[in-house]
């Protein structure tokens, strides 16, 4: 007997949903769904008394959204991050003193190698 519901409107308990998602190719444990229900990031649910009830259509859509684009090797994720999709610091996490501050730059006079950046060689920090 298949655990996958025929109707997207079917309502499932957490245990039923975990079994159906796993059978559909999205390995999921009931404990994972419980954690995501409390911390966020899981499929939408409703409460029936004290029990979480999940709509199959919403849940399978949630699982599908978690998939990455197809890859040919493990390095492709690194390439995607290098192309500009790497996470950036949120402005709210930056301190007021770092926003708009300039980084000191080093001006170097042309000197022989090995002496280019020492204070005695004439290099100055602005």
List the helices and strands and how they pair.
Layout: E1 11-13, H1 14-23, H2 30-39, E2 46-48, E3 51-55, H3 56-65, H4 76-85, E4 106-107, E5 124-125
If you had to describe this structure to a student in words, what would you say it looks like?
The protein is α+β, with helices and mostly antiparallel strands. Helices cover 32% and strands 12% of the residues. It has helices spanning 14-23, 30-39, 56-65, 76-85; strands at residues 11-13, 46-48, 51-55, 106-107, 124-125. The strands form 2 sheets. Strands 1-3-2 form a 3-stranded antiparallel sheet. Strands 4-5 form a two-stranded antiparallel ribbon.
Give the overall pLDDT as a whole number.
79
Q: Largest sheet at a glance?
A: 3 strands, antiparallel
Strand order in the largest sheet: 1-3-2
Using only CA atoms, what is the Rg?
27 Å
Name the structural class: alpha+beta
Question: Can you count the helices?
Answer: 4
Overall outline = elongated
β-strand number: 5
Residue share in β-strands: 5-15%
What's the quick description here?
With 126 residues, this protein is of the alpha+beta class.
What keywords describe this structure?
126 residues, three-stranded antiparallel β-sheet, 4 helices, elongated
């Amino acid at each position: 007997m298949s655990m996958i519901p025929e109707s997207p409107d079917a309502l499932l308990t957490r245990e039923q949903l975990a079994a159906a998602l796993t059978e559909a190719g999205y390995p999921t444990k009931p404990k994972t769904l419980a954690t995501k229900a409390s911390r966020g990031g899981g499929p939408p649910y409703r409460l029936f008394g004290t029990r979480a009830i999940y709509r199959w259509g919403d849940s399978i859509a949630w699982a599908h959204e978690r998939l990455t684009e197809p890859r040919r090797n493990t390095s492709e994720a690194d390439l995607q991050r290098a192309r500009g999709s790497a996470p950036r610091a949120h402005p709210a996490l930056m301190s007021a003193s770092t926003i708009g501050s300039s980084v000191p730059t080093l001006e170097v006079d042309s000197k022989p190698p090995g002496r280019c950046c020492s204070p005695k060689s004439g290099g100055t920090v602005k």
